[in-house]
Amino acid sequence: MDAFVKCIAEDDFNVCPECHGFRIFLQPLVSSQCSQDIVLETIKRCLPTTDLQKAKMIFLPVLHLSHWSVYCINLGQSRVDVLDSLNYTSNNEVTWDTYHSPMGQILMERLSATLSLAAPCKFPQFANWRRVPIRVPFQNNICDSGIFSMKFIEFYDGEGHGSLHTTIDPDRSKEMRAEMLQYLAFHTANKVHAPPELLQFHIGEFHPSFHPLFY
Q: Are 83 and 156 in contact (CB under 8 A)?
């Protein structure tokens, strides 16, 4: 996930520079239990060099209890959108509220406070913004939350009630994993040179989709 965030942030700058800064991608470390100083330095490294006040969305991938979800601070809608691929209605032990409410409140309080230190007066205080579950496709396999979260970060637009500018087929999780492996292995942000035997799998350049929202 850390590598994916770095790659998509680089694509945001190189592929569509006129839109760079509309989306801010934070490293997963920001949602961890590290000290505020470590989180603060991580946030500073993630912030674009553009005018921060033009940002529309801040994406934070969150790993909690071995499950990935995405918190999107939707600055344009003054809310926190939660994109989670787990179907809680089929799980009698855990509900969306029991999973996200206590954890999400603590996480947003900490992020809002630390972001205000990283970029004073650039972002509103969002600790008490309502957290909204966004309707997204559900994973079929217990281990698919990571790949789904990557797709959410890549394609979520945040407009209106929020939607994904792609179709995610839960039955294609193996194919999505292979596509993501190709993306990460051959991305220019990956400074490790691929061994010659892997070059046969390089099927061309791949960049995330950039949507009309950002133009």
A: yes
pLDDT band for position 191 (50/70/90)?
A: confident
Distance, CA of 162 to CA of 36 (rounded, Å): 31
Which CATH superfamily includes the segment(s) 2-214? Ubiquitin-related (3.30.310.130)
- Mean predicted lDDT score pLDDT of the chain: 89
Which carries the bigger pLDDT value, residue 137 or residue 215?
137
- Sheet with 79-83, strands from edge to edge, namely 23-25, 57-64, 67-74, 79-83, 131-133
CB-based contacts of 170: which residues, under 8 Å, 6+ apart? Answer: 137, 138, 139, 140, 144
Domain boundaries, the chain: 2-214
So what's the pLDDT on residue 210? 40
What contacts 98, CB < 8 A, 6 or more positions away? none
* Exposed/middle/buried for residue 114 (C-beta within 10 Å: 0-12, 13-18, 19+): middle
φ/ψ of 132, rounded to 5, equals -115, 125
Cα separation, 196 vs 7, whole angstroms: 22
> Tens of pLDDT along 81-129?
999 999 998 766 889 999 999 999 999 999 999 999 999 999 999 999 9
CA distances from 45 to 1, 9, 156 (A): 16, 11, 23
Residue reference for tokens 């939660």: 82
